[in-house]
Every structure is written in C-alpha cells, then in structure tokens.
Design a protein that fits this description.
It is a single chain. The two termini are 42 Å apart. The protein is built from 13 helices and no strands. Helix 1 crosses helix 12 and helix 2 packs parallel to helix 4. Helix content is 60%, strand content 0%. Among the domains are: 113 residues, Hypothetical protein, domain 2 (Endonuclease III, domain 1); 35 residues. With 251 residues, the protein is mainly α. The protein binds iron/sulfur cluster. The site of iron/sulfur cluster has 14 residues, from loops.
Length: 251
C-alpha cells in the first residue's frame, strides 16, 4: 500500500491489519478497552452509559476499576438514584473528578427513571439530551450498548485518523463527521476499539513505535519521526552517491 492509494483503498487494509493484531477472532467483545470488557461480561446499555461518563478525562484502567467497584453494589438506575452520595464517591474515587461524576451519574439515573421508565433510550437524539452526555458518550452507548454502527471519536481516534491521512481535521468532533462520510459502514462498529488499542500500543501521542507498524508507506506523520527522517536521509545519500558515479558509455 503506497501514498498514492486512495483513502477508500486504505481503510480495508488498515482495518484488516488492526483486527488481526488486536481482535484475532474479529469480535468486538474480545476488545481490551474498559467498555469492551464491561460489555463482554454484561450487555447492558445502562452500564455502558455510566462507564462512559466515568471514563471522561480518565485513563482506561481507572475507569475499569471504578466501574467494577460501582457495579458490584449499584447496577440499575433505581439503585444508583437511591444510593448514598458519599458511598458513590468512595466507589468511583479512582476516576478523575469523582465528586462531580457521582452527582452526574445520580442525575442521569433519575432522568432515566422519570422519562424512560429506567431504560436507556436507543437513539442519538434522545441520548444527547441526557445530562452529561455528549456526542462521544452517545455514540459509545449506541455502539457498545446497542450494537448500532457509529464512530465514537476520542483523542486517540482523532490522532490516528489524522496520522493515517484518513482525515485532515482539528477536533475529534470534526474527525467523527469526516470519518462517517468516508468510512464504509461495515467498519464503524470496530473503529473505536481498534484505533484506541493502536493509539495506546503503537501510535502513541509521543514516541510512536513506527518500526512495528504496517502503515509507514502512507502515514503522514512518519516522515516527521526519527525513523522517517533516517530513511529519507539514507535515500538522499544513495541518490547523491548514484549521481556522482561516472556514467557508462557504450562506445
Ligand atoms: S508509522 Fe508511526 S506514526 Fe504512523 S501510524 Fe504507524 S505508528 Fe503511527
């Protein structure tokens, strides 16, 4: 695959490579992100919603720890709405802004009870109208809670998509819109899980592990890395060397 390959040609190549690397059975439920693990154990949109709120501005390991502690005691909107706020704070303390998040998850649980009889709504517009639910959270609930194809876009998905030349955008929100126009729907369910895994494992924000990556031929960021610079320096030297060699004559 070269730089001249179109974005539509690149996407199947990228998705196949990442699926082979991170999802040997191609199964979203075998994922390693906190959300994928929660879903693997219990397919419950409510737990996905609460975990996603807890994950905001928080590392994945902390989200998983807090979610497990919380759901061991409170795992329904009614139980969460009636919980002692101090107990909630204690259980979700591993996540950032745990005091505000304790208030928010109680608030959203009460809204679910009041407006939806304790169910989580299954449409983007209804989800986005819930307290503390933005586009990324709504899309995570749709993908992981309801299996509906969407592209939740966090900073990893945004960075990886830009480096791979799939989009040229400034914000995760713009990346999400662009990806939804460019990427065939058959890949939407897996993009979030695969790009996050890739963004944490190889395509890290600082110090990406390019020698282990299959996308150096068309990655926009690679030429700016130490490996990319070394490759172009070597290529330049070889060119100079060739140009200095006396040309052969055939007389
Ligand atoms: S070549 Fe490096 S920067 Fe580019 S996608 Fe791969 S790991 Fe990321």
């Amino acid at each position: 695959m070269t730089t001249s390959a179109s974005i539509r040609e690149r996407i199947p190549f990228i998705m196949r490579d990442l699926a082979a690397r991170y999802l040997p059975a191609g199964d979203l439920h075998q994922g390693e992100t906190a959300l994928a693990k929660i879903v693997a154990e219990r397919e419950d949109p409510f737990l996905v919603l609460i975990s996603t709120i807890l994950s905001q501005r928080t590392r994945d390991e902390m989200t998983e720890r807090a979610s497990r502690q919380l759901f061991a005691k409170y795992d329904t909107p009614r139980a969460l709405a009636d919980a002692d706020p101090g107990d909630l704070e204690r259980l979700i303390k591993p996540v950032g802004f745990y005091r505000q998040k304790a208030v928010q998850i109680q608030k959203v649980s009460r809204v679910l009870l009041d407006r939806y009889g304790g169910d989580v709504p299954a449409t983007y517009d209804e989800l986005i109208a819930l307290p503390q639910v933005g586009p990324k959270t709504a899309n995570c609930v749709l993908v992981y809670g309801f299996g509906e194809p969407r592209i939740p876009t966090d900073t990893h998905v945004h960075r990886v998509s830009n480096r791979l030349g799939l989009v040229r955008t400034k914000t995760p929100a713009a990346t999400e819109k662009r990806l939804m126009r460019t990427v065939s729907k058959e890949y939407w369910l897996h993009i979030n899980e695969l790009f996050i895994r890739f963004g944490k494992d190889l395509c890290r924000p600082i110090g990406p592990q390019c020698p282990r990556c299959s996308f150096t031929d068309f990655c926009r960021f690679y030429p700016r890395t130490k490996w990319g610079k070394l490759v172009s320096k070597t290529a330049r030297r070889a060119q100079v060397h060739r140009s200095r060699r006396p040309s052969r004559t055939h007389d």
